[in-house]
Amino acid sequence: RSTLILFRRQRQMCIRDRINANPSAGLPERVLSGLQRFKGKVLFVLSGNDLTAQEFKDTVKASRKWRAFLCKAHITKQELNEADHTFSRRIWRDQVAKWTLDWVRLL
Prior knowledge:
About 60% of the residues lie in helices and about 15% in strands. It is α+β, with helices and mostly antiparallel strands. It has helices at about 1-20, 25-35, 50-60, 65-70, 90-105, and strands at about 40-50, 75-85. A two-stranded parallel sheet has the order 1-2. The chain is globular and about 50 Å long.
């Protein structure tokens, strides 16, 4: 019975999200909207030698809403400037693992 209730609530949330979503909004706006609705803690890990991370940083720099969101208490952001997109060196992966473990311990 409780599984059925959870399923129904999840379905209602998905329907509500589709109704509230702005299909003409760009990806950064849709991501921000979803993150603003999420009530849990968030960890961002960014690499420095990475076009995708740079695009994210450029989006944040250009958006007052993104900058304000990233300053909220439930948001943690870590940057590893010398790392590439996949954190391909062991030392980089170890650092990401440490940050993640430290973050999870605070949940």
